[in-house]
Amino acid sequence: MSRRNKWVLALMFLLGIAIFTYSLRDIKFSVLVSDFVHINFWWFGVAILCMVMYLGLEAWIVKVFISDRIQGFTFKDAIRIPMVEQLFNGITPFSSGGQPAQLIALMQTGVDAGKASSVLLMKFVVYQSMIVINFLFALVIGFNQIQDKLHALVWLVVFGFSIHLAVIVGLLMVMFWHAFTKKAVAVILKPVRWFIKAERFDRMEANINEKIDSFYAESVRISGQWKLMLRVFVITFFQLLFYYLIPYFIMLALGYTTANIVMVTCLHILIVMVISLFPIPGGSGGAEYSFEMIFKSYISSNSKLVLAMILWRLLTYYLGMLAGLVAMVVRPDKVVEEPNSGNE
C-alpha cells in the first residue's frame, strides 16, 4: 500500500468511529452494552459466516475463471483477490480502487495482465448483472412495503439502479456491438479533448480502446462456454444472497425473531444500491443513515437499532478491509504460464 492509501485507511476508521459516536449521542453506553451482552451469539455467528461465505464464493468465482485458462492457480491465491478488493473498495470513492487492486494481486501470482484484466471484466459483468436482477426481484416482491420505508431515499434508489443498468447496457454493447461502441465512445470523448492536453487525451483514448478490445476478445472467447458462465452466475447468485441475508441474522441475534426474511433481504438490496451513490469511500455516512432510516420501522428500540447498524457495518465494511490488510502481507503462490497455456 502507498503512504496515501495508508492515510486514507486510517481516516476511514476514524470517520467510522466518529459516525458511531454520533449515532450513540442519545443512548446510554450501559444500555448499549446490555443490549450487546444479551444478543444471541449463535445467530450473530451465522451473520459472520454469511460474510465469510460471500468472500469465499467470490474466491471460487475467481478460481473458476482463472483455472479455465491457467493450471496451478491455488485457492489460496484466489481468496486473496476478494480480500484485496474489499480493502481498496473501502478506501476509494465509488469503490473505484477494487478493480486495479485485483489486477495487481493477480499479476503478483504470475497471471498475465491481459488475461487477468479479461477475467476481472467478465467477473464484473456477471456481478453487475446479478445486482440488477436482484434489485428488480426486490421491487417485484416487496414494492408496496418498501415504498413506505424509503421516503426521501426512493430517488436515490432509482438513480442507483439507473447507473448499474447503464453499466450493464454499456458492457453488453461492447460484447455484441463492438464496432458501433467504439465509434460511440469516440464521439463521447470528443468534448474531453477541449479540457486536457492532446498527448494525455491520446493516451486515455488508446487505453479505453484497448480495454474495449480486450473485453470484446474475452467475451467472444467465452461466449461458447455457456456451462462455465451458467456456473459463475449461480455462484454469484448465492454469493450475493449470503451478503444480503446479513441484516436478517443480525435482527435474529437482537431478538427480532418475527422478522420477514424476504422483506429484510429486499430492504438490504436497496440499501446496497443507495450506498453505491455516495462519493465518500465505503459510502460512509450515507450507509449508516440509510440503514437506520429503512430499518427503524422493524427495530423499535433505538439502542438496538444503532447496535444493529454498528454490527452490520462492522461485518460488511470494516471486516472486509481488515481481511484485505491480512491478504496484503500473505505471499502469493506463483503460477508459471506456458507460451500456449489456457484455452485461447
UniProtKB/TrEMBL annotation:
GO terms for molecular function: phosphatidylglycerol lysyltransferase activity. This is Phosphatidylglycerol lysyltransferase. Keywords: Antibiotic resistance, Cell membrane, Lipid metabolism, Membrane, Transferase, Transmembrane, Transmembrane helix. The keyword Membrane applies. It is found in: Cell membrane. Belongs to the LPG synthase family. The chain crosses the membrane at residues 41-66, 124-146, 152-180, 228-255, 261-284, 305-330. It is a multi-pass membrane protein. Its EC number is 2.3.2.3. One of its GO terms (biological process) is response to antibiotic. NCBIfam families: flippase-like domain. It comes from Levilactobacillus brevis (strain ATCC 367 / BCRC 12310 / CIP 105137 / JCM 1170 / LMG 11437 / NCIMB 947 / NCTC 947) (Lactobacillus brevis). Its main location: membrane. Pfam families: LPG_synthase_TM. Catalyzes the transfer of a lysyl group from L-lysyl-tRNA(Lys) to membrane-bound phosphatidylglycerol (PG), which produces lysylphosphatidylglycerol (LPG), a major component of the bacterial membrane with a positive net charge. LPG synthesis contributes to bacterial virulence as it is involved in the resistance mechanism against cationic antimicrobial peptides (CAMP) produces by the host's immune system (defensins, cathelicidins) and by the competing microorganisms. GO terms for cellular component: plasma membrane. It is an enzyme of class 2 (transferase). It catalyses: L-lysyl-tRNA(Lys) + a 1,2-diacyl-sn-glycero-3-phospho-(1'-sn-glycerol) = a 1,2-diacyl-sn-glycero-3-phospho-1'-(3'-O-L-lysyl)-sn-glycerol + tRNA(Lys). InterPro entries: L-PG_synthase/AglD (IPR022791).
